[in-house]
């Protein structure tokens, strides 16, 4: 709920309590969810080092993680790298996600990895190099923010792009 309403302070408290409970009961999937939420808290605070650590812990979760948590973590890694203008690392994360999706036979989610690549290209002002802008027969590539950002973005408070192929 706090994530959806864009309240990082409340979300942090809830996520820390959730992670403690998950650690006590040895629930790795729940630990990964909590770390994903903590990653977004730190990303919103511009604490990019901590955000990157939390997102990476989800991607590398030893006991596994829910697919949605993994997708959000990869998006967080990409956006964190973009915020640091580390375009090559951001592309590496998007490519790693594409490989992860292939490994887990999740072809229906390839567009998410493509959307991340588009995001990077547009953020780096290098859309000419994008591998996937003309998705879905030119209709729409993606709206990454609707997938990975909290409600304050979806309601226009921070939403700056809805990528449409021409």
List the topology elements.
Elements: H1 8-24, H2 28-44, H3 48-59, H4 67-83, H5 87-103, H6 110-123, H7 144-148, H8 151-154
Give descriptors for this structure.
single chain; 166 residues; mainly alpha; Serine Threonine Protein Phosphatase 5, Tetratricopeptide repeat; 8 helices; 62% helix; globular
What does this structure look like?
The model is unreliable at 132-166 (pLDDT under 50). The chain is globular. The longest helix has 17 residues, at 8-24. The relative contact order is 0.11. The protein has eight helices and no strands. It has 166 residues and is mostly helical. Helix 2 (28-44) packs parallel to helix 4, helix 4 (67-83) runs antiparallel to helix 5 (87-103) and helix 4 (67-83) packs parallel to helix 6. The N and C termini lie far apart (36 Å). The chain has a single domain (8-154), classed as Serine Threonine Protein Phosphatase 5, Tetratricopeptide repeat, CATH 1.25.40.
CATH class: Mainly Alpha
> First CA to last CA: what distance?
36 Å
Percent helix, as a range, is: 55-70%
Whole-number count of domains: 1
Instruction: Please describe the biggest sheet, giving its number of strands, its sense, and whether it closes into a barrel.
Output: none
Instruction: Examine the coordinates and then state which fold CATH places here, giving the name of the CATH topology.
Output: Serine Threonine Protein Phosphatase 5, Tetratricopeptide repeat
CATH architecture, please?
Answer: Alpha Horseshoe
What would the principal axes of the Cα set say about the shape?
globular
Spell out the helices and strands N to C. Answer: HHHHHHHH
- SS summary, helix count: 8
Low-confidence stretches: 132-166
Number of strands: 0
